[in-house]
Design brief:
Length: 469
């Protein structure tokens, strides 16, 4: 009998399996797809030689992750590549606000009215980032924070809605940048704890950057898989699990799946019926005949570029997708241009480009024209650079990764109390009604992103049980 079986080879399932194998437990992992990776995969989606990331592409939480930083992933080929700027937020007039590695350079891009406010907000937290990120990404799986004072300071600034946090700033450009940071988890700007989301992304940029993985996000998953097999773990692909009886006998079962899928497989009935799924995304991967022609010079050297002309425009787009059930006319967009720092991703002189906008969960329309009209506002002539595009709406994304219910790449709405208390309001989020069954997907704390911490935290709960039995 195995000690543990893990279902789902996304970053969290892989991390959970690695953590258990590191502690001497026998582990087997089962993945329904033909390749491992979940939200961290890479494939030629458009033309030969153009390597795209079907989901996550830039990794501010990955490089900051306590789980990943504790593992020898560089030994297995993972290389983080840092663009000149982690992120740029251009405006139609050709200017841009930026997130630089340096707090000072970032503050300088905000102008004299807001530079001091920004420094006072982030500098004390950046200085304690590695401890802070371990504390908030480990709760509630650890009893006491290592630095409760810094965590409390972060909470005071971040737990109110992001609209409160933005009152510290006068310049509309700074407010737009922060609104864009919040929108990375598709949460309305006036929601509970949305200020914390914006702060996390800003602090991560200053502490460790917003890198891409050399060769594509698949490199993260491949490194975790190679480490797992070196530790004696077994990985089985093309193995779809429809019920617990499909799996070999084990002392514990760990699911990197949506709560709905787990309830169906394990026979939990309506246990997770109150869990809400959030807006979906409409994603386009481009093969380009050269760089994106941004009018703002800063955007040309940034790995990630946020597209939204103002806080109001971004807020309108988020409300349309999350509350009004319609696609926005001017979608807020997150774009990533890996080729500015990774020449392995496309043939010489060409580039790959990644963009998505928010749409209602399960939406079946086509956002291509609206997204490209937005891009043309900030990069005139963009369409002339397009060699090919691969379009994926909510249905296609869900078919690619079953955890993306209705196109929700966060595996559950990151809003309200569910941002913190997921998948149910409990101090034991990784446990289920069955004492030997656990959940470790992004539906558990700390939530969405390629960081492995949900898997790491769930593994702690599993090995505690295994040592008791």
């Amino acid at each position: 009998m195995l000690d543990a079986v893990v279902v789902g080879a996304g970053p969290n399932g892989l991390t959970a399996a690695v953590e258990l194998a590191r502690r001497g437990f026998t582990v087997a992992l089962f993945e329904a797809r033909s390749t491992v990776g979940g939200g961290a995969r890479t494939a030629e989606l458009t033309l030969p030689g153009f390597r795209h990331d079907p989901c996550s592409a830039a990794h501010p939480l990955g490089i900051s992750s306590p789980a990943f930083r504790a593992l020898p992933l560089d030994r297995y080929g993972l290389r983080w590549l840092h663009p000149e700027l982690p992120m740029a937020h251009p405006f139609p007039d050709g200017t841009a606000a930026v997130l630089a590695r340096s707090v000072g350079k970032t503050a300088a891009s905000f102008g004299p009215r807001d530079a001091g406010s920004y420094r006072r907000l982030v500098e004390p937290l950046v200085a304690r980032w590695d401890t802070l990120v371990r504390d908030f990404m480990s709760l509630p799986s650890t009893a006491l924070p290592r630095d409760p004072l810094t965590l409390a300071r972060f909470g005071l600034a971040g737990l109110p809605p992001s609209t409160w946090l933005m009152r510290r700033f006068k310049d509309e450009r700074v407010k737009a940048l922060f609104a864009g940071l919040v929108a990375h988890v598709m949460a309305p700007l006036d929601g509970f704890a949305t200020g914390a989301i914006g702060l996390v992304f800003a602090l991560a940029a200053h502490a460790h950057g917003w890198p891409v993985a050399r060769g594509g996000s698949q490199a993260i998953s491949d490194a975790l898989t190679a480490h797992l097999t070196d530790l004696g773990g077994a990985v089985h692909t093309d193995y779809e699990v429809k019920r617990l009886d499909d799996l070999p006998p084990a002392r514990a079962y760990v699911f990197d799946t949506s709560p709905a899928a787990l309830a169906r497989i394990a026979g939990f009935g309506g246990y997770y019926d109150r869990y809400r799924y959030g807006p979906g995304v409409f994603k386009i991967d481009y093969a380009l005949d050269g760089p994106v022609p941004w009018t703002a010079p800063e955007a040309r050297v940034a790995g990630t570029v946020q597209i939204g002309a103002s806080q109001a425009e971004i807020g309108t787009a988020l409300r349309a997708a999350s509350r009004e059930g319609r696609a926005p006319e001017r979608p807020f967009m997150i774009t990533v241009q890996p080729s500015v720092v990774d020449p392995t991703r496309a043939p010489a002189g060409k580039q790959v480009f990644w963009a998505y906008g928010h749409v209602p969960n399960g939406w079946s329309g086509d956002l291509t024209d609206a997204m490209e009209r937005q891009l043309e506002r900030f990069a005139p002539g963009f369409r002339d650079r397009v060699l090919a595009r691969a379009v994926a709406g909510p249905a296609e994304l869900a078919a690619h990764n079953a955890n993306y219910v209705g196109g929700d790449i966060a595996c559950g709405a990151a809003s309200g109390l569910q941002l913190l208390l997921r998948p149910r309001p409990t101090l034991f989020p990784y446990h289920t009604p069955h004492p030997a069954v656990f959940i470790c997907s992004s539906a558990t704390p700390p939530g969405p992103g390629v960081h492995g911490m949900s898997g790491h935290n769930a593994a702690r709960a599993v090995w505690r049980r295994l040592r008791q039995t």
